[in-house]
Amino acid sequence: MKKKSKLKNNFIPVNTPKIFKQDKKNIKKCLDTGWISSEGNFVKNFEKKFSKYINRKYAIAVSSGTAALEIAIKCLNLKKNDEVIIPTFSIIATALCVIKLGLKPVLVDSGLESWNMLPDQVLDKISKKTKAIIITHIYGFPVDMEKILKIAKNKNIKIVEDSAEMIGQTYKKKRCGSFGNLSTFSFYANKHITTGEGGMILTDDKKLYEKSKSLRNLCFGIGNNRFNHDDIGWNYRMTNIQAAMGCGQLKNISWIIKRKREIGLKYHSLLKFNKKIFIQPTQSFSSKNIFWVFGVVLNKNSGIKRDAIVKKLMERNIQTRNFFFPMHKQKIFKKMNIFSKKEKHLNAEYLSLNGFYLPSGIGIKNHEIDYVAKTLNNILNNQ
User: Fold this and answer.
1) Where are the domains of the chain?
2) How far apart are CA 30 and CA 240, in angstroms?
3) Could you give the 3-state DSSP secondary structure of residue 8?
4) pLDDT given at position 223
5) Are 169 and 253 in contact (CB under 8 A)?
6) What class is the 21-251 domain?
7) CA-based nearest residue to 295, from 263, 317, 255, 273
8) Please, what's the largest Cα pairwise distance for the chain?
């Protein structure tokens, strides 16, 4: 008689974070000091250490990756209806930070294999009204930025590099997050390093640094004029407790990146021969895949719908997450008439309908990866 796998009764979440001893030690130290809000040495230390890691001059710790994007875009001092080019295949925060400031998002499609915004489409969409581009790296590989950065420099177009999913990744041997006027990161629980919730803005421009610091802190005045504000900002501060955890996480970043790649390579070896799915290669022309998540896209001849697979996996206690839903298809943006009804981005639409990612958090165990991959292969091969 065959032994039943214990894993069939154990739920495998799409993300399992890794909490280190140093994280707990730092948090206890923070609590003992009494400095638990946004004032405290851990915030300053985290900013200093993270900017050094990315190789930027200045860092501003904030409450989320979304907060980081909103502040970064507002720092550019763009005017109403100025155009900002963004990928349609992204999380909604990419569009929201533009729309909320009265700016016009201009969408580009993504590659079916890279899953990133297409550089040639970015160049085609540039007009006299284009004032900024948000370069958003997706899932494992960085955007091919060379052409975009070159034309942006020539036309004085501002660049915000959204590196939320790329902590530790490089583009042609240079750290992601070190490009553009400003760059942003997220420390949500599923990111390479986490503070539970949190984000970071980085820049080499002192004026942008000072502006970002002010915007995250309600644009308080100086000295006796603290409660007299000269601009509208937000309370987007990171707490000292969160930063304490961030310092502990960052100390382990080399191990984290190594483990992330081990997870991705293990999945890759177990799934690469299944012809019903597409999985990204382990290496591109610019960098090794960092496998923020391990994504799977159904091929057209797979003979099964994505949602059916996701359901079957969940029945076997394996949680997955669907790929991003395109901005031009979002219900709320249709209600607001943000984009033309005729707008189509076929690659992004295909990815959103056929793509999903497997449990691939840093805390996942190797035997869990084996079980997930075996289960997925069985589901696909029995169709």
Assistant:
1) 21-251, 253-381
2) 7
3) helix
4) 86
5) no
6) alpha beta
7) 263
8) 79
What's domain 253-381's architecture?
A: Alpha-Beta Complex (3.90)
33, 43, 99: which is closest to 216 by C-alpha? 43
Query: What is the residue whose two structure tokens read 């990744």?
Result: 169
pTM of the predicted model, to two decimals? 0.95
The encoded tokens of residue 368 equal 């869990």
**pLDDT value at residue 224:** 87
Tell me how far the alpha carbon of residue 378 is from its chain's centroid: 31
Is the CB of residue 46 less than 8 Å from the CB of residue 240? no
Strand partners, 158: 132
Q: Which residue has the tokens 């610091």?
A: 213
H helix count then E strand count, the chain? 13, 13
Q: Look up residue 319 and give its two tokens.
A: 């949680």
CA angle in degrees (0–180, nearest 5) for 229-231-234: 90
Task: Report mean pLDDT in 10-residue bins for the chain, 383 residues.
Answer: 56 96 97 94 98 98 98 97 98 97 98 96 96 97 95 95 97 96 98 97 98 96 90 96 98 97 98 96 93 97 94 98 97 96 96 98 96 97 84
Number of other residues whose CB lies within 10 A of the CB of residue 357: 21
